[in-house]
From TrEMBL, chains A, B:
<protein>
    <submittedName>
        <fullName>GntR family transcriptional regulator</fullName>
    </submittedName>
</protein>
<feature type="domain" description="HTH gntR-type">
    <location>
        <begin position="14"/>
        <end position="81"/>
    </location>
</feature>
<keyword id="KW-0804">Transcription</keyword>
<dbReference type="InterPro" id="IPR036390">
    <property type="entry name" value="WH_DNA-bd_sf"/>
</dbReference>
<dbReference type="Pfam" id="PF07729">
    <property type="entry name" value="FCD"/>
</dbReference>
<dbReference type="Pfam" id="PF00392">
    <property type="entry name" value="GntR"/>
</dbReference>
<keyword id="KW-0238">DNA-binding</keyword>
<dbReference type="InterPro" id="IPR036388">
    <property type="entry name" value="WH-like_DNA-bd_sf"/>
</dbReference>
<keyword id="KW-0805">Transcription regulation</keyword>
<dbReference type="InterPro" id="IPR011711">
    <property type="entry name" value="GntR_C"/>
</dbReference>
<dbReference type="InterPro" id="IPR000524">
    <property type="entry name" value="Tscrpt_reg_HTH_GntR"/>
</dbReference>
<dbReference type="InterPro" id="IPR008920">
    <property type="entry name" value="TF_FadR/GntR_C"/>
</dbReference>
Length: 232, 232
DNA sequence: TCATGTATAATTGTATACAATAAAACATCT
DNA sequence: AGATGTTTTATTGTATACAATTATACATGA
């Protein structure tokens, strides 16, 4: 089990607070709540059938995950992401994903490598069919396997958080079938470099993969989406 | 004002919760609480003269800052940092500090550059005198100026968090006068590269600076401190 | 009409009471 | 003595009451 899963379990998904946290997190990431929308404690509580206490505690966590911002005595607002933020995130990810791929080359287990291979082959099928939903799922899984395989919980935590952050933007910039195919080919190359034990190449390809993903976003109108927002 | 400061103010230092949060954070970082020590809600509350509610909310935030770990229905425990964690942090920091220095070269203001220069010259004095306390303060400031100057709040947030994390270890690995002098010389080189507008060199030197800092820690017995802990 | 002040309502902040869970102490049996 | 089961205690989880703060609606005057 990856420490990603562990982290979310430690967050106690069976307590009311944990349920509120997970639910709000999902709703924010899926775009149910608009950016800058205010979240009212009682409204959320009533919707989920709980009192304000667990809601408030969930808010504190969501704030530090960067999903909402709490202004004292005022309220909780869904965090806005600017185009500049997206650019910075991909810049940081390109470096860290490269680092992760390098470490994964040295620490990956047989099982993980097999799952990577399976992932790539399965994704090739869905990519050719244009099954975007499955592609998103497989893409997430591919990267999380690497996060787990790098054997660094510090790095894994960072990458998981960024990956989640980026999921919000994916909802807005539509991914094309062409990019799906290209992306999976990049996954295959990374997987093969790792399988061959070539850490340098794995790092280079993973970094490149991020840059390509970002450039694709820009091409698909990333800046159009955010053009009304301040560029900080 | 750097967004570091902003962040901590948003965390509402005048509310009871904010005071509890800041106080506990400081106490954990300063080493008042041992690693793996359990923090009891009522005990903390009584010590600070507040009820459990603000304490609990502060706990949730401390958990996501990685300073404590909360186990549902059990308790809150001060997070342990292993030698492997320290190694990983420095590996990540070496990359991100380099990135930051590169961006800072392009975005730094006149005022910030001047403060960097002043910092380096003042630190040279304190380094020669062996004033370790002032050195720590100046070192913190030097890096935070760069975090601010890179003009990326995503990157700044990351680096600030890591920098804080590392502060806990600094309490344990004593810094020598020699390292203080060497470190400040590295700061000077970075500053000069930025002043000269040489982004490549600034990045290279900042990365090197982190690697040197880490190697110095290892030399000063980093692994001895943590030898009793599991290496994950 | 607009600005200003005041009263009202809505919302967050904190304390506290009670419920649920886990830990500890104790008793009992073999 | 040691293992096991039960009671007691301590601690966390949640709901709710009240206080403090902020936002809104309204009234008043220029």
């Amino acid at each position: 089990m990856s420490s990603y899963d562990v982290k979310k379990e430690v967050t106690d998904k069976y307590s009311l607070r944990g349920r509120v946290f997970n639910r709000l997190r999902e709703d924010i990431l899926s775009g149910k709540y608009e950016e800058h929308e205010e979240l009212k404690e009682v409204a959320i509580g009533e919707e989920l059938g709980v009192s304000r206490t667990p809601v408030r505690e969930a808010f504190r966590q969501l704030e530090l995950e960067g999903l909402i911002q709490i202004i004292p005595n005022k309220g909780a607002y869904v965090t806005g992401i600017t185009a500049k933020d997206v650019k910075d995130i991909y810049m940081i990810r390109s470096s860290l994903e490269g680092m992760c791929a390098r470490l994964a080359t040295e620490n990956i287990t047989e099982e993980q490598l097999e799952e990577l291979e399976e992932n790539v082959y399965l994704a090739a099928f869905h990519a050719s069919k244009g099954h975007m939903e499955q592609m998103t799922e497989l893409d997430n899984r591919f990267h999380h396997i690497l996060y787990d395989a790098c054997n660094s919980k510090m790095l894994e935590r960072l990458l998981v958080d960024f990956h989640q952050y980026v999921a919000r933007i994916r909802q807005k910039t539509l991914s094309t079938k062409e990019r799906g195919i290209a992306s999976n080919n990049e996954h295959r190359q990374i997987m093969e470099a790792i399988k061959a034990g070539n850490a340098d190449e794995a790092e280079r390809l993973a970094t490149l993969h991020m840059n390509n993903a970002y450039n694709n976003m820009v091409k698909n109108g990333l800046y159009d989406i955010y053009k009304n927002e301040e560029q900080e």
